[in-house]
Every structure is written in structure tokens, then in C-alpha cells.
Design a protein that fits this description.
The chain is globular, with a radius of gyration of 21 Å. The protein folds into two domains: about 180 residues, 3-Layer(aba) Sandwich (Rossmann fold); about 170 residues, NAD(P)-binding Rossmann-like Domain (Rossmann fold, 3-Layer(aba) Sandwich). The model has no long low-confidence stretch (mean pLDDT about 95). With about 375 residues, the chain is α/β, with parallel strands linked by helices. Strands 3-2-1-4-5-6-14-15 form an eight-stranded mixed beta sheet, sandwiched between helices.
Amino acid sequence: MLIGVPKEIKVKEFRVGMTPTSTREAVAHGHEVLVETGAGVGIGMNDSDYEAAGAHIAASAEEVFERAEMIVKVKEPQAGERKLLREGQVLFTYLHLAPDPDQAKDLVDSGATCIAYETVTSPAGGLPLLAPMSEVAGRLSIQAGAYYLEKAHGGHGVLLGGVPGVDPAKVVVLGGGTVGRHAIHIALGMGADVWVVDKNVDVLRSLWQQFDRPLNTVYSTRDAIERHLAEADLVIGGVLIPGASAPKLITRELVKTMKPGSVIVDVAIDQGGCAETSKPTTHDDPVYLVDDVVHYCVANMPGGVPKTSTHALNNVTLPFTLALADRGWRKALSENPHLMAGLNVHAGKVTYKAVADDLGYDYLDPNEAVRL
């Protein structure tokens, strides 16, 4: 199979779909890899590194999309890239379709087979291709929150960990999944007063066992969210419904009750955000104010640390990339129900139910789609 790796073009996105190491593995499996010139510069890898791994270098994204049978990316294809997709081509990347009707329409119209990293599952019930980026984003959320709590950056001037004789900042983490767990780890390490809110008591029990008494656990109710957000200095939004739009746990009215200069880091923004006041931002312009509350809603947070993120992502995507290339996408999906769960769009049909429900498309079962 000819695998294409274009350069990412989303604002300040420096990750790349395949590293030279992954390229070498694909070549060893008998495949060709076509990499757009400069695609790896953001992680310190030059065209010569890819050539040494056996790749061919393409002069443009247009060449990559025109020639490749499968496109391997990181972020969702931008509007210009979507125009280059064609019927029968495989796209393997993050999609996050539920809050992005324009992208969904373009992918449906393209006729391409679109497999989303974020909905591939594991035998244990997790999301293995989303997990490493959630780990990175969870850790970064505390770094970003601490930075924007500083008065010079729009916050109300609180040091996250406090000092002897002065209270630390109160950090409220909404959601105890992968994002939440890693945010808690960093926040506790910095000495903050950390509270996690989740509706799953087993999750709260697991977090209690992992972090012990320094962590405060709260069962999620409207009353609990309202009370703790009113006292919070930093709120981390880490809630997730796989493939679907994030629930709006933070209402517009609730933001008005928060402290002026407090900070919301909405990690759920890829799926639409968990605050009604959230809207996607970029690394170029990451924050804005609503009712004097700082909102940080960068939709590709891990892109800020592309070396770490790219290698962590390739560690989990490479086996699936090789399976798709070795067996062909139909056989690979038919043999692996967890990879099948990643199929979101095929031949003009939406094949992931949460996306179909959120965007008003007719749903086609992916097991039927592979027979089209």
C-alpha cells in the first residue's frame, strides 16, 4: 500500500502522522511511504531522516493526496485538505466530527473511508489512540491554568501551590478519566487544593486509592458543580462521551458566579467543549474573557509539545496503521471490532452512531458499511 503523510496545516500544529521510525516499520512490511517535504520539521526530523527510513518525499500536499491510498495524519483535515480526498481513499486521523458539521459534510461528500483515532476502542473498553493525547493535554492543562492565573496574563494573581501561610489555589477537575487523572497528578504535585467531580463512584474510588487524602472527591450533581465552581480558581474540563458532543456542565449563568480572574481550561473543546461559553482557540490566540473569567480553549493542546506528543501518538497508532496497510481496510476492520469502532464515515454514509445522532445523519452500521 502507498501511505501518504502530509504536513499538518492547522494553526501551530507541529505534530506529524508518522515518524521516521514508524516509516521504517511500514517499509519493512513492504509498503511505500510518501511524506510531504517538511512534514517532520516540527519534531526535529528532516526530509533526509525520512529518506533514510525508506520514504519518498513529495513536493506538496496535493501530490500526497493524489497518489496515496491511505492518508495518515494527526488533526482533522482542514477545508483545503478535504477537497483533495477522493472516493475509495482511506483517511486515518483524529476527526472529532460531532461538533464540526462542515467537516462531516465534506467527508461524506468525498466518498472516502474515514477512520477516527478517537473512537477506536480496546478490549478493556478504553480509547487507546485518544489516551496518550489526553495524558498530554491533562498535564498541559495545569501548566496553562497556572500561567493564566498570573495577574499579568489575565488571572487574579494566585500561585497554584501557595506558600507557607497562604492558601493554595483551588483546582476543580470535571471528569475523572484520562485527562482528569493526569491533571490531578500535576496539580497535586504543584501543591494545589484539588477537587475532582465525577458521576461514577468507582472512578472516584479509584482516584482516591491512587492519590490518597490530598485529593478531594465529589459526586457530580448540579448542586456540587455550582458550589465548587463558585469557589474555584482553576477549572479543568475533562469530560468525554466517545464520539459525541461534550455535555455542557458549565452553563453561561454559572460562569457569572465564578471569581473574576479565575480560569477555565476546556480540554473537551475538541468535542465542542463542556462550557456553554467555550469556543475553539489556537496557540496563536489561546484565551478570551467571558464575565471576567479567562477561557483557554486551544483545540490542539498537545501540538504545543510536538516531540512528546508525536512519539506518544505513533506508539499507539502504528500497529493499526500497519494492520490497515497489511490486510487492507476491509479485512483489517472485519477482523478487529475495536478498529471497526473507529470507522466514522464510509462511501457517503455516517457509520458512527453518536455522530449521526448529533448531526442528523442516517446511521449505517459499520459492519454493513464494509460490505458496500
